[in-house]
């Protein structure tokens, strides 16, 4: 999953999807934490900062829409056993494997300019 533009591709796919799904909770948790930290609970005049809570509610609702309807899937015993036999990896091992599968994208604009400049030489 690309992190470009704050997971823009994921967010677009999420909005376009219908029915059940499994959202990536890490992104939504990050959104909620950012909203909580970036916005005060109260405005300077002492009133509640309702926009903060509205945005937090919209974030939660974007996750909750995947709760219903549920999936109607019959259990597949060989698949369940295969999943149960998977090794439990540490966070570092998972990170290394994720880089192998999907290398980091260099989003530094200066490196892109440098790359173009070197091509011209």
TrEMBL record:
Q: Which InterPro entries match?
A: Ras-like_GEF, Ras_GEF_dom_sf, RASGEF_cat_dom, RASGEF_cat_dom_sf
Q: Which GO terms describe its molecular function?
A: guanyl-nucleotide exchange factor activity
The UniProt keywords, alphabetically, are: Guanine-nucleotide releasing factor
Write down the PROSITE patterns for this protein, in alphabetical order: RASGEF_CAT
Q: Which domain of life is it from?
A: Eukaryota
Give GO BP annotations, semicolon-separated: Ras protein signal transduction
User: What's one GO-annotated cellular component?
Assistant: plasma membrane
Domain Ras-GEF: from-to ranges: 1-104
Which named protein is this?
Ras-GEF domain-containing protein
Q: Which organism is it from?
A: Rhizopus azygosporus
């Amino acid at each position: 999953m690309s992190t470009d533009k704050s997971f823009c591709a994921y967010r677009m796919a999420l909005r376009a999807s219908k029915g059940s799904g499994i959202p990536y909770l890490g992104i939504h948790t990050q959104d909620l934490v950012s909203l909580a930290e970036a916005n005060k609970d109260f405005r300077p005049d002492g009133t509640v900062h309702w926009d903060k809570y509205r945005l937090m509610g919209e974030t939660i609702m974007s996750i909750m829409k995947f709760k219903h309807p549920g999936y109607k899937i019959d259990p597949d015993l060989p698949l369940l056993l295969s999943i149960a036999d998977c090794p439990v990896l540490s966070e570092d091992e998972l990170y290394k494997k994720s880089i192998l599968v999907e290398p980091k994208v260099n989003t530094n604009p200066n490196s892109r300019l440098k790359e173009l400049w070197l091509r011209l030489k």
